[in-house]
Amino acid sequence: IGDKLGRKVVLTTTIILMAFSTLLIGLLPTYDQIGVWAPILLLIARIIQGFSTGGEYAGAMVYIAESSPDNKRNVLGSGLEIGTLVGYILASLLASLLFFILSDKQMASWGWRIPFLLGLPLGLIGFYLRRSLGETPIFENEISNSEDEIEEESFLSILKNHKKDVFVCFVAVAFFNITNYMLLSYMPSYLNEIIGLSNTVGTVLITAVMILMVPLALMFGKLSDKIGNKKVFLIGLGGLSLLSAFSFYLINLNGLVFVSIGILILGVLLATYEGTMPGTLPTMFYTDIRYRTLAITFNVSVSIFGGTTPLVATWLVHA
Hints:
Blueprint: H1 7-27, H2 31-34, H3 37-67, H4 73-101, H5 104-111, H6 113-117, H7 119-131, H8 137-142, H9 147-151, H10 155-161, H11 163-195, H12 199-227, H13 229-251, H14 256-280, H15 287-306, H16 309-318
Helix pairs in contact: 1-3, 1-7, 3-4, 3-15, 4-12, 4-14, 11-12, 11-14, 11-15, 11-16, 12-13, 12-14, 13-14
């Protein structure tokens, strides 16, 4: 749809899907009220959330890259990751606030629904903003081609004709998201269950690192526009290869200072990816195949490597 009808169409659709599915979770009846339909509806809502995210993230990358001047593509693209980090931070602060002002019983009864109910107003604001967007100039130039010409290339032929670019994109996304899921998804439970820090301390540490990553992502975006995205990406790749084991060594020394330094190292190096990836990945593919190729490559890589990182990490710890 993004390659055929335009980037804006998908971005306005995904924001509504996300708002609707998030609201649905907040309004779900309990198991006691509707029985097995409660988990079924929850699963459906989560699937819609995942479906919308699958089209959203790649589309946002494409839209920003196609709307940005060449000399600012990475710094503007880093705004996508900054937005993601700010979302994580606000969610963490909201959850902490709710745990602070509500009792455990109130949270279990109805308090947990509040963040999900906020999906509706946020979605409506997002939809309003996106409706006012124009289509990207690059795509508007591309649609001067006939539909038949655009539809000729199937994804199998894209894999055949652009296999090197697809492979490089796939591997880059894997490194990016293994690091991302390790730090932002798995680390809080690791700090609690393995290191023995309280949930509160672990949450504060991760949130503090995310706050620091916001200006770092912007800085690395500017740097990659200046010296080249490949060099900045290789800084992150080399740094993680050399320092990730050292980071976990520090974390396992079990002192708060050492734990903080270990997490910070991972956060700084993750920020190199966040400053380069959104602006770089869309430019690897031609306009007429850009959206679908990036969306499929990105999401398959994230699903195989990123989404499984906490599971693999948990297995490794127990093994």
